[in-house]
């Protein structure tokens, strides 16, 4: 059985409440249950934090033993050299995901310090971005 960590960054704990026109009206916990039933042969571990250092600690914790990591670092994507360096330092492949199309938003969101160190990027497919990322690890 494959083990995949889903790591979400700042403000993603507000999914379902925060800007539903951009992020939808479903909480991540509700969506995670759907993912777990869809991918019942995959062990999905979920972690969310609004704190940059906790995200780095989690990447280092799972980054040498899991089969994959799905990372939505939220706004830290565009500001955190530290998270980018953590992704570069680990051996577990990482897929960067974003719910919204970051390229249709503010210009500062067009730069990622994470992307150069990832297996791939999935942007703009809503919560389904996570499903696509899981599929990339099992196909």
TrEMBL record:
Print the keywords alphabetically: Amino-acid biosynthesis, Aromatic amino acid biosynthesis, Lyase
Starting at the broadest rank, the lineage of the source organism is: Bacteria, Pseudomonadati, Bacteroidota, Flavobacteriia, Flavobacteriales
Q: Which organism is it from?
A: Winogradskyella aurantia
**Metabolic or biological pathway, per its Swiss-Prot or TrEMBL entry:** Metabolic intermediate biosynthesis; chorismate biosynthesis; chorismate from D-erythrose 4-phosphate and phosphoenolpyruvate: step 3/7
**Annotated substrate binding sites:** 72, 78, 85, 99-100, 109
Which InterPro entries does the UniProt record give?
DHquinase_II (IPR001874), DHquinase_II_CS (IPR018509), DHquinase_II_sf (IPR036441)
Its Enzyme Commission number? Answer: 4.2.1.10
Describe the reaction catalysed, as an equation.
3-dehydroquinate = 3-dehydroshikimate + H2O
Entries under CDD domains matching the protein = DHQase_II (cd00466)
Q: Which Pfam families match?
A: DHquinase_II
Q: Which residues form the active site?
A: 23 (proton acceptor), 98 (proton donor)
Do the record's keywords include Secreted?
no
Which family is this protein grouped under?
Belongs to the type-II 3-dehydroquinase family.
Purpose of the protein = Catalyzes a trans-dehydration via an enolate intermediate.
- What Gene Ontology molecular-function terms does this entry list? 3-dehydroquinate dehydratase activity
**Which residues are listed under the site Transition state stabilizer?**
18
Q: Which GO terms describe its biological process?
A: amino acid biosynthetic process; aromatic amino acid family biosynthetic process; chorismate biosynthetic process; quinate catabolic process
Q: This protein is called what?
A: 3-dehydroquinate dehydratase
Q: Which PROSITE patterns match?
A: DEHYDROQUINASE_II
Leading EC class: lyase
What highest taxon heads this organism's lineage?
Bacteria
Q: Which Gene3D superfamilies match?
A: Dehydroquinase, class II
Subunit-level organization: Homododecamer.
